[in-house]
């Protein structure tokens, strides 16, 4: 009898899960949209994503990267939606949150039967079943059941870890709990059932603009600039205002893992028995970058160290190789001619407070459309040994002058010999 | 007064000269003539060159020849001749020389030429080619991070040396064509010396950049020195190869230097600020032994960096 009850329970729970998915889809499909970016010249869609309505006044939430083409070229594109019943209409841009990849758009024409997703009060418990909705590859609206696995550990740009497949086109679609309340937005996938969602708090933040006016074209860039500036100052106040833990690399002490939210990887050539030198590497970077448009990412940070030991090379050969190793450093973020200027560099020999002498190269480039924001590239190579050297390198994307200078000074003075 | 005739090649280069201590000269194919020319297009008795007893000038008379006489490319039966007129009979060209007209002064022997005599030594050429080859091998060795294999490196470096030898060979061949001496050894020695000089300059450049991190003025200095080396090399190559006036040599040197350098400079300036996601900086690192200047403190460096922001902000406008 007990076994019977147990089996019954099992049946119930699977049935319940199916029930939820079906119900959810039936209940809210009228509030789900495919978002299309229409190129005016050809009159056809140039990119698609998903979106969901959050109130009766026609506000729809989607990803910023879905509407980024429009943001950058408002004269050449327009935003449209396609509803479940095949009806189409225009959308206007109300607000964007580039840092969290969110955008708020509003339906121009409202019908008398507007439906909206409720917003959850809090995130569910880890392991709860959640449902991602969206329109992958323009195949039609679907429901993907999956599991909520908490907020991604040690990340600066917060994301929910969702176990379930998110595919291109589902971006901007809602993720709901069993009650059908929105608790995340589809944003990215890392392959094989690992998906990332924008968490609830960020959506709530965006909803403050629910009643705001439509953003005019000329307000778009200043709005983005303001968000980028605020974001970089939050990031660098976290980085610059505490002591950095140093670790050992070769004979040097380096500030590699300077905070919890950057992830580090290492490697060396010790397995190469024929190599005449030893190279030990340490790389750290922020996991996420901010997407601005197809050719421009910002908000990233990478730090790399390489310890080189020439062992049997001899000093001239070693220094030749050492020079080659610092040749051709490039930007850490994707950017095109229209977005940023060329780099300008300052080079000098610098002795830091710990007595370490570096050939130091510091380069900046400016963002053409965003005042006060710069990309930074730093290369340093120690000059204290005949056959050994430490290469230190970092790139910062989208930072203000002050953040860059404070970080640079702190970084340069953090390197020491053991 | 004597009559002087010069036998010319097709390109008016003198082949032979004849001097006659008499007032008239018969020219033809016949063995009785004063000047016998073995040219099937010339009549046995073709023309007569004589001194006019009244005016003392030279005249030429056609002796009813089949093919006639051309003076300065015009058919004539009889004509008064001036010094340096070219007479064409049959297929032969003769030039009249007036012995009264004074010749140009001799070109003074150049001291430089005497001073360059030491270049013309074979043992020096052998020695310098060994020095160059060793230098090439050494730089290859210093540039390698794998186990260095001399035998494997040798062919490519020998090839490079051979490529360098094209220049002196070209000049030697040209010199041989135009005059008799090729001065091939001097040309080789000059080329090897210039290669070594250029490499020494490159080393000095590296050390200078590493120590003083110079600004854009240094690029101009580099370009000027490069132009001087190239120009000087061409000038000396010409000097060794040909006998020319200094003016002519300077003009050729100037134009050759320009032809070689113009594309290099133009490319450099045209590409100078093309958009690039990689910054351009100088990556030269040298061992502590070459480190001659003092370094700055972090504070000073950060202070200097401020100027970069103004620079990149200016670039935005472009």
List the main descriptive attributes of the protein structure presented here.
heterodimer, A: 418 residues, alpha+beta, six-stranded antiparallel barrel, 24 strands, elongated, B: 318 residues, six-stranded antiparallel beta sheet, 8 helices, 12 strands
Please, could you describe this protein's structure?
The complex is a heterodimer of chains A (418) and B (318). With 418 residues, chain A is an alpha+beta fold. In chain A, 22% of the residues lie in helices and 38% in strands. Chain A is built from six helices and 24 strands. In chain A, the strands form five sheets. Chain A has a seven-stranded antiparallel beta sheet, with helices on both faces. In chain A, strands 1-2-3-6-5-4 form a six-stranded antiparallel barrel. A six-stranded antiparallel β-barrel of chain A has the order 7-8-9-12-11-10. The N and C termini of chain A lie far apart (71 Å). Chain B is 48% helix and 16% strand. Chain B has eight helices and twelve strands. Chain B has helices at residues 111-115, 122-142, 150-164, 166-178, 184-212, 217-241, 246-270, 298-316, and strands at residues 3-8, 14-20, 24-28, 35-36, 47-51, 58-62, 69-71, 74-76, 78-81, 86-89, 92-97, 296-297. In chain B, β7 and β8 form a beta hairpin. In chain B, α2 (122-142) crosses α3, α5 runs antiparallel to α6 and α6 (217-241) runs antiparallel to α7. Chain B is elongated, with a radius of gyration of 32 Å. β20 of chain A pairs parallel with β12 of chain B.
């Amino acid at each position: 009898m007990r076994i019977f009850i147990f089996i019954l329970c099992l049946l119930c729970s699977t049935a319940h899960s199916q029930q939820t998915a079906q119900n959810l889809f039936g209940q809210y499909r009228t509030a789900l949209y495919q978002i299309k970016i229409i190129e005016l010249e050809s009159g056809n869609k140039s990119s698609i994503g998903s979106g969901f309505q959050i109130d009766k006044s026609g506000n729809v939430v989607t990803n910023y990267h879905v509407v980024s083409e429009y943001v950058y070229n408002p004269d050449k594109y327009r935003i449209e939606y396609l509803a479940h019943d095949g009806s189409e209409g225009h959308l206007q841009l109300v607000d964007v949150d580039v840092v969290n990849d969110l955008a708020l758009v509003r339906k121009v024409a409202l019908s008398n039967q507007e439906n909206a997703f409720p917003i959850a009060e809090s995130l569910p418990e880890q392991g709860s079943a959640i449902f991602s909705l969206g329109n992958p590859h323009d195949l039609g609206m679907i429901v993907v059941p999956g599991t909520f696995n908490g907020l991604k550990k040690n990340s600066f740009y917060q994301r929910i870890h969702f176990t379930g497949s998110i595919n291109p086109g589902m971006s901007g679609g809602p993720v709901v709990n069993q009650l059908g309340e929105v608790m995340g937005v589809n944003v990215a996938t890392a392959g094989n059932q690992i998906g990332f969602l924008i968490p609830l708090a960020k959506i709530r933040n965006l909803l403050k603009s629910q009643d705001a006016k439509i953003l005019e074209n000329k307000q778009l860039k200043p709005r983005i600039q303001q968000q980028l500036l605020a974001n970089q100052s939050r990031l660098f106040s976290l980085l610059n205002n505490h002591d950095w833990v140093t670790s050992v690399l070769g004979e040097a002490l380096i500030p590699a893992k300077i905070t919890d939210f950057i992830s580090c990887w290492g490697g060396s050539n010790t397995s190469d028995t024929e190599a005449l030198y030893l190279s030990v590497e340490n790389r750290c970077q922020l996991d996420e970058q901010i997407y601005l448009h197809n050719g421009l990412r910002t908000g990233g940070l990478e730090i790399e160290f390489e310890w080189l030991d020439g062992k049997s090379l001899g000093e001239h050969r070693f220094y030749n190789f050492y020079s080659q190793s610092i040749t051709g450093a490039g930007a850490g973020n994707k950017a095109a001619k229209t977005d940023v200027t060329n780099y300008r560099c300052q080079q000098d020999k610098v002795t830091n407070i710990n007595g370490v002498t570096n050939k130091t190269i510091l380069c900046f480039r400016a963002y053409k459309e965003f005042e006060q924001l710069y990309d930074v590239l730093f290369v340093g190579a120690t000059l204290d040994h005949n056959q050994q050297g430490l290469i230190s390198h970092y790139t910062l994307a989208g930072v203000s002058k002050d953040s860059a200078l404070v970080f640079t000074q702190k970084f340069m003075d953090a390197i020491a010999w053991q | 007064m004597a009559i002087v005739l010069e036998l010319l090649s097709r390109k008016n280069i003198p082949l032979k000269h004849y001097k006659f201590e008499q007032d008239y000269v018969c020219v033809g194919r016949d063995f009785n003539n004063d000047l016998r020319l073995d040219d099937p297009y010339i009549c046995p008795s073709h023309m007569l060159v004589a001194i006019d007893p009244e005016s003392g000038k030279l005249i030429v008379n056609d002796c009813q020849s089949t093919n006639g006489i051309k003076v300065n490319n015009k058919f004539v039966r009889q004509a008064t001749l001036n010094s340096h007129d070219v007479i064409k009979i049959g297929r032969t060209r003769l030039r009249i020389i007036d012995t009264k007209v004074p010749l140009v002064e001799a070109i003074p022997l150049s001291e430089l030429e005497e001073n360059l005599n030491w270049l013309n030594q074979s043992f020096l050429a052998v020695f310098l080619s060994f020095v160059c080859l060793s230098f090439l091998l050494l730089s290859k060795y210093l540039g390698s991070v794998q186990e260095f294999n001399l035998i494997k490196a040798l062919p490519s470096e020998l090839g490079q040396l051979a490529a360098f030898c094209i220049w002196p060979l070209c000049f030697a061949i040209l010199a041989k064509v135009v005059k008799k001496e090729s001065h091939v050894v001097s040309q080789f020695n000059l080329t090897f010396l210039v290669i070594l000089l250029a490499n020494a300059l490159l080393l000095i450049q590296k050390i200078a950049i590493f120590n003083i991190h110079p600004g854009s003025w240094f690029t101009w200095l580099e370009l000027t020195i490069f132009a001087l080396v190239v120009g000087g090399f061409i000038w000396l190559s010409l000097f060794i190869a040909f006998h020319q006036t200094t003016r002519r040599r300077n003009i050729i040197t100037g134009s050759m230097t320009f032809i070689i350098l113009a594309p290099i400079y133009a490319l450099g300036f045209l590409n100078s600020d093309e958009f690039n996601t990689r910054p351009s900086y100088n990556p030269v690192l040298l061992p502590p032994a070459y480190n001659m200047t003092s370094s700055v403190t972090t504070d000073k460096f950060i202070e200097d960096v401020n100027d970069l922001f103004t620079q990149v902000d200016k670039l935005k406008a472009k």
